[in-house]
Design a protein that fits this description.
With 125 residues, this protein is an all-alpha fold. It has three helices and no strands. The structure holds zinc ion.
């Protein structure tokens, strides 16, 4: 049967959806197979086709946002490269947020480069 919440197909023995954990509703009693109903209202809405959870797809990119933004403040190269790698993996999983992570990380590294040019570290003479 299909989950009424997320549309995931579950074994008929499952009481709860393996994907979202919502209880699965039995739409038809098992014991009355061949009784034609006199009035047939639509018993259940048409099951929606299975679709990947939009949030789950972007989880990796959202995780990558953390080092990307932190790279503006501390360790721009280390955190920036970490964020770029995470963003690239997220992009491979077709999450457009991965591109955003890469852009932010590159921006953090670029800002740091320009910052060092405008405000060079004090030299010991
Ligand atoms: Zn479900």
């Amino acid at each position: 049967m299909f989950c009424g919440e997320c549309g995931t197909e579950n074994p008929n023995t499952n009481q709860f959806c393996k994907n979202c954990g919502k209880p699965l509703k039995k739409t038809q009693p098992v014991s009355a197979p061949a009784q034609p109903p006199v009035i047939s209202p639509p018993a259940a809405p048409v099951q929606e086709p299975k679709k990947p959870s939009a949030i789950m797809k972007h989880v990796l990119a959202i995780i990558g946002l953390i080092p990307a933004i932190a790279a503006f403040f501390v360790y721009p190269y280390v955190l920036g490269i970490i964020a770029i790698i995470i963003g690239a993996v997220a992009l491979k999983k077709k999450s457009w947020l991965g591109a955003l992570v890469i852009v932010i990380a590159v921006a953090a590294i670029t800002v740091d480069l320009f910052y060092l040019q405008i405000f060079p570290p004090p030299r010991i003479i």
